[in-house]
Amino acid sequence: MLTKILPSHLHVTAIGIGSALGAGGSTVFPIAAGEIANSRGITTIPPLLLGMFAAELVLLCWLPGLPAKTPGRQASLEEIISLQFWR
Fold first, then answer.
1. Which residues, 6 or more positions from 52, have their beta carbon under 8 angstroms from its beta carbon?
2. What is the pTM of this model?
3. pLDDT in tens, 25-39
4. Helix locations, 6-65, DSSP H
5. Is 74 helix (H, G, I), strand (E, B) or coil?
6. With bands split at pLDDT 50, 70 and 90, how would you rate the model's confidence at 8?
7. Residue 52: count of CB within 10 angstroms of its CB
8. DSSP at 59
9. Could you list the residue ranges that cross the membrane (predicted)?
């Protein structure tokens, strides 16, 4: 979806940033969950996971829809910025 929303000259940078954030999150969250469970007990893991799933759902709903395109025309940056994030 990212390659359809952004102009072609931003594809590599945006995918690189997204990959770096995903890799960082995949290392930070398990360590943080382990430390919280170590200090407060294992019973804190299910509420923590439920909160993380809820946050992911909110982020998923926050993704913009694709702007309407005519054949052979790429969406301008103004069209992308003006997308409504809350449907």
1. 29
2. 0.49
3. 889 888 988 898 899
4. 11-40, 45-62
5. coil
6. confident
7. 13
8. H
9. 12-33, 45-63
Amino acid at 58: V
Closest to 63 (Cα-Cα) out of 4, 10, 23, 19: 4
- Average pLDDT (65-83) is 62
What residue has token string 């005519």? 70
DSSP 8-state assignment for residue 66: P
For residues 54 and 22, what is the distance between their CA atoms, to the nearest angstrom? 17
Which are the contacts of 49, defined by CB distance < 8 A and separation ≥ 6?
33
**Which tokens in the block code for residue 27?**
């290392």
Residue 4 has pLDDT above 60, yes or no: yes
